[in-house]
Amino acid sequence: MPRLVVRSFTISLDGYSAGPRQSLDEPVGKGGIQLMDWAFATKFFNTMFGRSGGEEGIDDDFASHADDNVGATIMGRHMFGPDRGPWDLNWKGWWGENPPYHHPVFVLSHQERESFEMQGGTSFTFVTDGIESALQQAFAAADGKDVRIGGGADTVRQYLKAGLVDEMHLVQVPLLLGQGERVFEGLAGVEDRYECNEFTPSNRVSHLRIVKKS
Amino acid sequence: MPRLVVRSFTISLDGYSAGPRQSLDEPVGKGGIQLMDWAFATKFFNTMFGRSGGEEGIDDDFASHADDNVGATIMGRHMFGPDRGPWDLNWKGWWGENPPYHHPVFVLSHQERESFEMQGGTSFTFVTDGIESALQQAFAAADGKDVRIGGGADTVRQYLKAGLVDEMHLVQVPLLLGQGERVFEGLAGVEDRYECNEFTPSNRVSHLRIVKKS
């Protein structure tokens, strides 16, 4: 059965996956980009950006397998762009002409917008009728593969709360952010459905796996 | 200079240091006692409870040094007992006749109560005029040694927010609690004063050290 997965979802030691006040200059909010240092240090990311070098090991293993068997991505609007309200139709995501998805991406939004295609197999489709509709469309587009939730915190939280996430790979970074967006908020009862079944620290971060209780 | 320290303060992967609904039967709230499994597994704790065995290594090192150079403890009322409102004068703490402190303990409360002494050098003094008063009294009683905040979350948060904590040793457990009490809440700005300068994972938990920025 295809599954709904979260991979390499990164939070600070105080639980924030992004800093406050997201903007064009700070896509991950104030201070939030530091959350990605563990990923930027890997060989996988360096290779993706056309650079040599980078670290191998635990972090690289997780980063390089994050898209294994993933056929579609779901994300929230703020992960797609910084603007709010009516769409700026010139905005086509943070990632340039050839986004790193290479499969259909479904963006949750309250504002309708025509879908469009980018280079390299990535398409963006905008879903205004809720998380379950987005999930159905994503599973159909994934054609038997898994669907990955890209983020952000609010989107992951909604799917967790609805019990729709099958597996979540969480990365805890030893960084104090102080404020921002967090996924673990208003989730009382989630502990009855989910549990942590893996703890794999590297020399930089902790990797945790959260799964449905059997 | 004597310092105000937090040691072995343990939180779940979603940031809770105690479960909800503390009671006489569940001093750490629903599910909260699991947060202490890492400590209960150490040789230090087994020895303290008169048992042989227990694990040595990273967790045992942190647990056994948590009271080094500590001359007094501050705690919140809920760490001292389960009751609310006027004092039950028969209640003398969770720890029996010989509490594991062996030095003066200052309990923050809104209800006045006479101080009293237990076996083994532990005394309990009740402070109703705020965290700074408690800190002054604790430093005086510690006689040149450090003061440790025992907990709980609310007490640690108040001292962090006021910038009075000098060093905090945090333990992150790969456990999903879902709800409860947390220290990292409403602390926007704490990231300007404090930073994490140590990440030491064991095979069970992550140990982090938070210090004032220099």
Please explain how this structure is put together:
- Two copies of one chain form a homodimer.
- Chain A has 214 residues and is of the alpha/beta class.
- Chain A has a single domain (4-82, 98-212), classed as Dihydrofolate Reductase, subunit A (3-Layer(aba) Sandwich), CATH 3.40.430.
- In chain A, 21% of the residues lie in helices and 25% in strands.
- The first copy, chain A, is built from seven helices and nine strands; from the N terminus they run E-H-H-H-E-H-E-E-E-H-E-H-E-H-E-E.
- Chain A has a nine-stranded mixed sheet with strand order 4-5-3-2-6-1-7-9-8, with helices on both faces.
- In chain A, helix 4 (77-80) links the parallel strand 2 (70-76) and strand 3 (104-108).
- Chain A is globular, with a radius of gyration of 17 Å.
- The model of chain A has no long low-confidence stretch (mean pLDDT 97).
- The interface between A and B is medium-sized, with 31 and 31 residues.
**Multimeric status of the protein:** homodimer
Give the overall form of chain A: globular
Tell me the major beta sheet of chain A.
9 strands, mixed
Structural class of chain A: alpha/beta
CATH class of chain A reads Alpha Beta
Mean pLDDT of chain A: 97
* Biggest interface, chains and residue tallies: A-B, 31 and 31 residues
At CATH level 2, the architecture of chain A is: 3-Layer(aba) Sandwich
Strand ordering within the main sheet of chain A: 4-5-3-2-6-1-7-9-8
How much of the sequence of chain A is in beta strands? 25-35%
Q: How big is the Rg of chain A?
A: 17 Å
N-to-C terminal Cα separation of chain A, in Å? 16 Å
Number of domains of chain A: 1
User: What is the number of E strands of chain A?
Assistant: 9
- CATH superfamily heading of chain A: Dihydrofolate Reductase, subunit A
Unreliably modeled segments of chain A: none
Please trace the helix and strand order of chain A, writing H or E for each element.
EHHHEHEEEHEHEHEE
CATH topology of chain A, by name, is Dihydrofolate Reductase, subunit A
